[in-house]
Amino acid sequence: QVQLVESGGGLVQTGGSLRLSCAASGIIFSHNVMGWYRQAPGKQRELVATVTSGGSTNYADSLKGRFTISRDNAKNTMYLQMHSLKPEDTAVYYCKYSDDYYSLWGQGTQVTVSS
């Protein structure tokens, strides 16, 4: 079974940057998809970006250009680099792992952007 541990969230001012990390451990299949999702208060959880084990990426249209997803397969770690942060980026950011057998969510990390 896979375990996910997120880190890197925090408080940042408008225009600032943060990098989130998601470390996966356990039984990790070679073909998988990892992704970042976020949920703001009172809103549904939404896609931020995904990256496959082969390196293909997909982004929410509204976040292209400001957010960059990447992964280091040797470390089983995924990253989300966020630039030019806005108050509307404030949310709990969740890491997700999916393979052919199951999906798993991380516990979430809070990102707060102050105006």
Polypeptide structure, described:
The protein has 115 residues and is mainly β. It has no helices and 11 strands. It has strands at residues 2-7, 10-13, 18-26, 33-39, 46-52, 57-59, 67-72, 77-82, 91-98, 103-105, 109-114. Strands 2, 4, 5, 6, 9, 10 and 11 form a 7-stranded mixed beta sheet that branches. Strands 1-3-8-7 form a 4-stranded antiparallel beta sheet, with no helix packed on it. Strand 9 (91-98) and strand 10 form a beta hairpin. The chain starts with a strand and ends with a strand.
Relative strand content: over 45%
Return the average pLDDT rounded to an integer: 95
Q: Specify the structural class.
A: mainly beta
Order of helices and strands: EEEEEEEEEEE
Q: Any low-confidence stretches, pLDDT <50, length ≥5?
A: none
Number of helices: 0
Structure summary:
With 115 residues, this protein is mostly beta strands. It is 0% helix and 57% strand.
